[in-house]
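hiii, so i know i said id send this last week but things got crazy w the move. better late than never?? heres the sequnce for the chain we talked about at the cafe, plus the structure i predicted for it. fair warning i was half asleep when i ran it
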Amino acid sequence: MKIRWLKREWRLRTYLAALLLITTVLTAFVVGSAILALRIPQLEQDSAQEVRHEAHLFASREDLLLRTIEERLGVIATVLQQLPSEDATALLDQAAGDGGTFRTLYLTNREGRVMAAGVPPTLRLRRNEMFGADLSGSPLVRLFQQRQQTLWGDKHLSPMTGELSLAVAYPLLDGRMLLAELPPALLLNNVDLSYDQRTGTRETGAQAVDIWLIDSLGDVVADTESGGAAGKLNLHDSPLMVALREGRPPPERMDYAGREFHASLVRLQWLDWYILARSPSGRDNRAVGAYVGAIGASFLGTLLVGLLLAPFWASGLVRSLNAIVNQAHQVAQGGQSRRWPKGPVLEFNRMSVDLEAMADSLQELNHRLEDRVQRRTQALADANAELAQTVKHLQDTRNELVRAEKMAALGSLVAGVAHELNTPLGNSLIAVTTLRDETRHFRNGLQEGLRRSALEALLESLDQATSISARNLQRAADLVSSFKQVAVDQTSSQRRLFELREVVDEIVITLRPSFSRTPYRISVDVVDGLWLDSYPGPLGQVLTNLITNAVVHGFDERDHGHIEVRGAAAQDGRVRLEVRDDGLGIAPALIERIFDPFMTTRMGRGGTGLGLNIVYNMTTTVLGGTVEVSSVVGQGSVFTLILPPKAPDAPRPAPAQSTAIDPKV
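okay and structure toks below
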């Protein structure tokens, strides 16, 4: 299906501008799409690689941080062993500082009771509550008492603040324990990330990367995202942690909050904790978004430039063409040809030169056209007159052939009737002659005297002769009566009211002599009481031609054949008359031309090709009906006439051709 807007007519300038604009936009779209298709996978790959790098880099920094914290605790523990107990608190306060690294520091005895505590200035009012406090209930303290080695605890609840803390227990040589509490966010403070207020993420390099600190149970205890997942999300059963626990490489993508991220999960060496680095993928990837934005801006810029420049380019192309078109229009309107315009386009200049040559030739042809038209008109008039004369001659010839055909049929009818009359008249003549001889013999016998036996013999011969003569003369009279009516109908073509069965019987009676010396049979099955106000003469001519056509063409000198004439009332009030035969049928190639004049398969063998043409013309014009034919080769043919009960008032001319089919031509 063509696009609708392509069907309407456009001005050339508009059409060219639209083509230029569409070409420019499509080029920009295709090139931009190709760039995105090639570049986006690379950007995604770079983003995933950067996330892996940041995760491992951050994990290395965290391990270094934890090692540094242990070393600081070692220094503090060494100093505590050399100081008196009353100076321990001051040392621990100094080590706690402002709480940036150590939230609280406790020095406990072997049983886990607090001997000294160091806290930031904001917590010193509550420090006295901790002196003598028993910390042996802490899981980390109990584990330390068993192992007497440096231990890290991941979910330590601070006894002073009640906050979740990261704790480390460091042993002193005398069996005491130095317990330090650190804020979990401390592990993220050493990451050099800049927070983006617009996206809510922190960036490293060219990508937006978030860092999650995950404890051994899978809880996110700290993150670099403002209002993020810290304390809200557990990843223990996530594909990332399951794969890492099972020793498999974790997947490099994760779904969170309805978005997809590049992700990299790394385990810390000093703690059974994890570092998760993640960066948005797909449309949320900053690099991808920047590329898409740049391509979109380029596309819009291209569209804008095309909108501005395409009309100017189109105008320059069309200007010279418009001048040529205007010149051609003036010449077409009969104007004088002048110098044709030219422009910067070679093809347009060539067209201008060719049009100029054509215009000059056209001016010359116009001068000679009137003379040529007059000569052609006169020649056409002469040809029409000659053609009309030829048509009249052909029409006259056709009419003569039709009359000859009708007279030939009538002559054949006369010959058949004459032959048929010969038998009954001959029988009557023989009977009368015999009676005459018997009478002479009786008269001669009277001279010898009248005898009873002679009188009885004469009376018997007289009775037999009169019976034979009467029977044969009646037969001849019937035949003559039928022939007389048929001859009158066919020669006069007068209209009258008649019964169809009566006319058909008369026609068949006159045709039977033609069948007397042939192996062919004819039968009639016409319903009684079918009255027609029509022309019996043309109807008889039609039946005669159809029956003769069946004998000549359908049977074609076969040793058997049957013709049946059927008549009955049709459903629409008209009369249906059929002429059937069991002859050879008609070839399919002749079906469409069967009623054409001069159409015959016996040309040169007595066939004129007018029999069925007469049938068609008389049926459709004089009788006001229709004629159709159906045929099966080898099984015979059926001619069907549909006649109105009342024929038209006067014959109407009709073409001598029909779509009906004649199987016997």
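btw The first strand starts at residue 104 and ends at 108. thought thatd interest u
miss u guys!!
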